[in-house]
Amino acid sequence: MATALVTxxxxxxxxxxxxxxxxxxxxxxxxxxxxxxxxxxALAVAQECRAFGVKAECFAADVSKFDQCEDMVKQVKExxxxxxxxxxxxxITKDSLLARMGEDSYDxxxxxxxxxxxxxxxHVCPVMMKQKHGSIVNVSSVAGLYGNPGQVNYSAxxxxxxxxxxxxxxxxxxxxxTCNAVAPGFIHTPMTDVLSDELKExxxxxxxxxxxxxxxxxxxxxxxxxxxDASYVTGQVIEISGGLSM
Length: 246
What we know:
49% of the residues lie in helices and 15% in strands. It contains nine helices and seven strands. Strand 1 (3-6), helix 1 and strand 2 (27-32) form a beta-alpha-beta unit. The longest helix is centred in the middle third of the chain and has 29 residues, at 103-131. The model has no long low-confidence stretch (mean pLDDT 95).
């Protein structure tokens, strides 16, 4: 049985990805932040994954921390036997216009969103090399492609992920390891639920399909990228935005 490790998988898009991969037949390693509240959410996701007849285990780690990532990867390998797919999904926002953004807000977003991707790929790629195969999917954003006012930190982190994805694809392609990215647009999540109707309408004016995407629609593309159907796809950034860029 193949194993997928998904970071930031206790809720939102990460949880949807974990459940979709379980439905596809992957055993799933569900990463969550240390702490009881996040652990409870992760355990609930694991239970839903097990309903598909696969193994699902929870692993606590702050993926912005290099040593914690190293320890988690060792634990996943020992407990689940392999790491065939890695989905780097963990992310935060600390939005503010550049003129008002403090250094701490910039550094925190870079650490969680971008440094975590380095940390995880650094420790997982050697495992995949020994296995002689593997698939990596990094979750970027349309903010990394086009920028977004009030998100200089978030945009920087997501743009960096795109560069990292293409570089790792070139470095590890000969090792039978693929590395791709998805760039979601406006996705229906608890964060968008709290926006005013006026702001929602204004945002959707830029979307050709005139609706928000659903987390499951992100998960379906990730599912493809870690499947055998995408065995010759690497170094790509797939925008999932309902036509935001057109």
